[in-house]
Specification:
Blueprint lengths: L7 E5 L3 H12 L5 E4 L2 E6 L9 E6 L13 E3 L5 H7 L5 E8 L6 E6 L5 E6 L2
Parallel strand pairs: 1-4, 5-8
Antiparallel strand pairs: 2-3, 3-4, 6-7, 7-8
Helix pairs in contact: 1-2
Amino acid sequence: MEKNALSWFEIPTTDFERAKKFYEQIFSYEMPEMNMANVRMGILLHDREAGGVGGAIIKGEWSKPSAGGTIVYLNAGDDLTVVLNRVEKAGGKVMIPKTAIEPDMGFFAVFSDSEGNSVGLFSMK
């Protein structure tokens, strides 16, 4: 059995600059960029050296945002309320508010980002 079910993820964009600004606002950090195989990528910060799993927002010819596709749950730190409270101001919409999963299993929320993707948040508090 693998340590992680996920090894990398990509969140598609139609307007890369708008999406980058959105994610920078909700997570309150500057997103590093890179290009690979004609795909523009904005890297979501993660600790790869410690085995962390990462991902990126992407703009490529085949990437198309979707509200009905796979939902990726992003780590929102100690309490997802901090990130979730920035979503609407940044141009997104909260779809599922902060919700307890089960006792001692943490909390989740789902939002629609600036591109129309459904994206989840997770935290233990």
